[in-house]
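for the writeup, i need someone to sanity check this before i put it in the appendix. the sequnce is what the collaborator sent (i think, or maybe the updated version? ugh). structure was predicted straight from it, no edits. if anything looks off just tell me and ill rerun, i have time this weekend
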Amino acid sequence: MNGEIHIKQFQPVRHKLVPRSNNSAIISASDMGISDEEWGRLQKALDWPIPDHIIYLNQSTSPVHSSFSIVGLKESYKVGEIISVTITARDHNKNLKRYGGDFFKAKLFNSELKASVYGKVGDHRNGTYSVDFLLPWEGQAQVFVRLEHSSEVVQILKKYRDSSFPRSHFNGYFESGPSKTRIREVVECNLKWGADGSWSKGNCYCEYKDIKTGTVWQCERPKTLSCDKLVYHSGGRLENPLNRFEQQLFAKKLTNVAISGDEHIINVLPNTAAIGNCDCIMRELELCPLVVAMRNAILVLRGVHAKHQEVAPWMIRRLLDIFHGLHSHLI
């Protein structure tokens, strides 16, 4: 290997018109230029619990009444150990949520060290969540959890992501004629989409297709100028698709809000003992106790030293992703 990292070159995405159902595009692995196995892993990673259909705001997840607790808190831990946290989601009536799908973010932090690391959140789909944290530094640490979006908001986001609602609108500029008598017209433009594969302006539109990507651009037909007189376009208005009830769910007091919980200080002691081999698989690598000697570019996995050349390329890439994420939370 000579220390080199070989990265698989994926095929470019092949855009093509595909049938649509229920306002959602039908996309396959071949459309994305990836294998069926990779497509399956991607779909599994994107799977998200679907909440009950609610009609009242007080049935949604409440950041005020939701809470977290540290499981089996000990007097002290050692660097490289895992600590677990349980999150309990409740609605505005203090009732335990019966389903999952809430978007929680949980981190372990030390303000004095300016250090933090995010935990791996597991959804039990019954209103409770588990978070596992790696203890990567020596000293003290605390847990912080916030509700980014309730499960109800997540489903609203998904609904509009999959729909053909034109949230962004654009302006098309048509011009023709000599400078003194030049005719200019501005009309609305957008991508060609919708349940029937067409824009919502009927048949009175001009259509432009990108030969390389297959993307189709549509503009309302100008009153006097022909379709070939389009000279440029610009961003236009933004349209809010949310109804009144959905807007209430997106209120600032309900999104990106810290929840209350265990405020105990976690004491982390140095770990100098070798603790065996690490048989981590890729999906659990984030929680594999490890130490990084950045100056010497040496990886230490549960006390096993490995030079760059001795580590599998996929592991190196995954570690680099993890370290990049850790570093981004330290500043």
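The first helix runs from residue 29 to 32. Residues 274-331 form one domain.
thx in advance!!
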